[in-house]
Amino acid sequence: MIHFNIETWRAWAPERDGTDDWSAWSRSPAAIADQGQQPDVSFLPAMQRRRLSRLARMTFQVAWPIAEANPPMPLVFVSRHGETPRTLAILEDLARDEPLSPTQFSLSVHNAIIGLWSIQRGDTSEMTAIAGEFDGLEQGMLEAATLLGEGAPRVLLVIAEETPPALYAPFIDDVPFPYALALLLTPGSDWHLELGTATGQRAEWPHALNLVRALCGEQSVLYHHWKSRQWIWSHKA
C-alpha cells in the first residue's frame, strides 16, 4: 500500500477545462464529441507552440499552471498510446518510400513531451515517461510514490491520451475522447492505493476519468480492475 496527498489537480478534454465543467460532466458522464479542439497554450511563445502536437498541448495545458505555482519538481508522464498521429504519419511516409522527417521522428518518441517540457521550463528535475496498459495511472502512481519516498517534496503526475487516427480506431477502445489529467502529489496519508488480485469487469471509463469524478464528488473508495490486478483507491472523508 502506498500513501500520498493530492494537493491540487487540473483536467482537460474538448469543451471541458475548469472544475465546474468537470463537475457537470461527473454528474452525468457521457462521451464528448471530438472536433479537433485545441487546448489553450497561449502562455508559450508562438514559435514554441508550433512544435507541439495536440497531445503535448493537452499535457502542457493541465500541468503548466501547477508548475508555475510551485518550485521545480519531478514529473511523471503517462500515456498508453502516445503520439499515434505522428507515428502513423511516419509509417505512411515509409509506405510511400518518402524521406523521413528527423523532426517528426524526434517528436514521436514516447519521452519527447517531457523533453519539450524540460526545455520550455528550463527544468532539469528527474522526469519519467511511462507507457502503461489500462492501469497506466496506477503504474505512474507507483513511480511518483517512489520519488516521494526518496525525498521529493512534491511530484507532478500527468496522464494524457489522444484520439487515435481512424486507421487505429478498431484496435484502440480505451480512449473515449482526448483527455489529460495533472495531479500535484505530496507526501501524506489522505489517499491510499493498494493492489489486490481479484478480477472484475473493466470500467466503462479510463480510470483517470473515474478519478476526476471522485475528485469532483469526493467519492471515498474507487476500484479499478485490469487483468488479474485490482487496484483499490481510498480517500479520507
Description:
With 237 residues, the protein is an alpha/beta fold. It has one domain (7-187): Peroxisomal Thiolase, Chain A, domain 1 (3-Layer(aba) Sandwich). It is built from 8 helices and 7 strands, in the order βαααβαααβαββαββ. It has helices at 19-27, 46-49, 54-68, 84-95, 102-108, 112-121, 136-149, 207-217; strands spanning 2-12, 75-78, 127-130, 155-161, 179-196, 221-226, 229-235. Strands 1, 2, 3, 4, 5, 6 and 7 form a 7-stranded mixed beta sheet that branches. A hairpin with a 2-residue loop joins β6 (221-226) and β7. α1 (19-27) crosses α8 (207-217) and α4 (84-95) packs antiparallel against α5. The protein is globular, with a radius of gyration of 18 Å.
Principal-axes geometry comes out as: globular
Q: What is the straight-line distance between the termini?
A: 18 Å
- Per DSSP, the total helix count is 8
CATH class call: Alpha Beta
**CATH level-four homologous superfamily name:** Thiolase/Chalcone synthase
SSE string, helix = H, strand = E? EHHHEHHHEHEEHEE
CATH topology: Peroxisomal Thiolase, Chain A, domain 1
SSE diagram, text form:
Elements: E1 2-12, H1 19-27, H2 46-49, H3 54-68, E2 75-78, H4 84-95, H5 102-108, H6 112-121, E3 127-130, H7 136-149, E4 155-161, E5 179-196, H8 207-217, E6 221-226, E7 229-235
Parallel strand pairs: 2-3, 2-4
Antiparallel strand pairs: 1-5, 4-5, 5-7, 6-7
Helix pairs in contact: 1-8, 4-5
